[in-house]
């Protein structure tokens, strides 16, 4: 092979290598971020103790890194959902007006008191119609059913006791009468909710979480925590009510 051909193949090889390197380090690649390899939405990483009870980790979804925790046999989000879009990229309508909220028959979201700063700390509020789309959760996760909430409740001591290990301790996100010790790592905040006819209520007093389980044509199941109580029980409410959402791994 003469010098000309050797030079040609050397240059071609260099160009191919540069192209491959460029494609592997392209910051537009969803698995590549700022020089560090990231994880696809829904994948748990940085586990502290594998899949054992009490292990903690992280899970990315729509640009937000959620804390997650293993409680018994279930992986749970340890923060309230912050999603402004469904998992197919469709925007979840943000509805501030109380009358408009009460008239909804499709998915909607809001910030407590329509204050984004509160939502940044306590998570978004969603009606049940948003839950029922099946598109709120990241890949490999879902909004828990009534039975899955009951599994969590029973593992932590039942309806009269599970509130204590589920609630964050202290008075930062609850009133001073808070009985929580957060032994489970679930880290529930007193995020309050929105009544089906529009007003916001119970910030620092209650946490409310939707289940994906319907209860007739108008109602659905939700679970609640109370500041000064260790109770953790399920109730029914109008599907237009607004509550927090946690997701559990499939």
Describe the structure.
The protein is α+β, with helices and mostly antiparallel strands. It folds into two domains: 3-37; 44-249, no CATH class. It is built from six helices and 15 strands. The strands form six sheets. Strands 3-4-5-6 form a four-stranded antiparallel β-sheet, with no helix packed on it. The termini are far apart.
Overview in brief:
With 250 residues, the protein is α+β, with helices and mostly antiparallel strands. The protein contains six helices and 15 strands.
Low-confidence stretches are 1-36
What count of domains describes the coordinates? 2
Estimated radius of gyration: 23 Å
Distance between the termini: 59 Å
Number of helices: 6
Which strand order spans the largest sheet, edge to edge or round the barrel?
3-4-5-6
Estimate the strand proportion. Answer: 25-35%
User: Rough shape?
Assistant: globular
Biggest sheet character = 4 strands, antiparallel
Structural class: alpha+beta
Helix content: 10-25%
SSE arrangement, N to C: HEEEEEEHEHEHEHHEEEEEE
Strand runs, count: 15
Quaternary structure type = single chain
Mean pLDDT: 89
Primary descriptors:
250 residues; alpha+beta; four-stranded antiparallel beta sheet; 6 helices; 21% helix; disordered N terminus
Give a topology summary:
Elements: H1 3-24, E1 32-33, E2 36-37, E3 44-45, E4 56-61, E5 64-71, E6 74-77, H2 98-102, E7 109-110, H3 116-122, E8 125-126, H4 128-132, E9 141-142, H5 146-155, H6 163-166, E10 191-194, E11 200-203, E12 206-215, E13 219-226, E14 232-238, E15 248-249
Antiparallel strand pairs: 1-2, 3-4, 4-5, 5-6, 7-8, 9-15, 10-11, 12-13, 13-14
């Amino acid at each position: 092979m003469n010098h000309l051909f050797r030079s040609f193949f050397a240059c071609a090889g260099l160009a191919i290598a540069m192209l491959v390197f460029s494609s592997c380090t392209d910051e537009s690649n969803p698995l590549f971020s700022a020089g560090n390899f990231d994880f696809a939405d829904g994948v748990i990483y940085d586990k502290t103790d594998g899949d054992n009870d009490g292990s903690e980790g992280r899970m990315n979804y729509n640009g937000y890194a959620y804390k997650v925790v293993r409680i018994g046999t279930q992986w749970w989000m340890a923060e309230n959902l912050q999603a402004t879009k469904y998992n197919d990229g469709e925007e979840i309508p943000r509805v501030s007006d109380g009358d408009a909220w009460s008239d909804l028959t499709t998915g909607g979201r809001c910030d407590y008191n329509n204050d984004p700063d509160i939502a940044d700390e306590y998570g978004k509020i969603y009606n049940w119609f948003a839950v029922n789309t099946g598109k709120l959760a990241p890949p490999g996760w879902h909004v828990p059913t009534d039975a899955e909430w009951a599994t969590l409740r029973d593992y932590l001591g039942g309806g009269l006791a599970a509130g204590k290990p589920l609630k964050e301790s202290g008075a930062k996100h609850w009133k001073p009468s808070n009985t929580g010790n957060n032994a489970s790592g679930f880290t529930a905040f007193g995020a309050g909710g929105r009544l089906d006819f529009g007003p916001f209520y119970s910030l620092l007093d209650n946490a409310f979480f939707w289940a994906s389980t319907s209860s007739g044509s108008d109602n659905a199941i939700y679970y609640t925590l109370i500041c000064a109580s260790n109770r953790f029980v399920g109730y029914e409410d109008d599907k237009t009510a607004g509550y927090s959402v946690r997701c559990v791994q499939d």
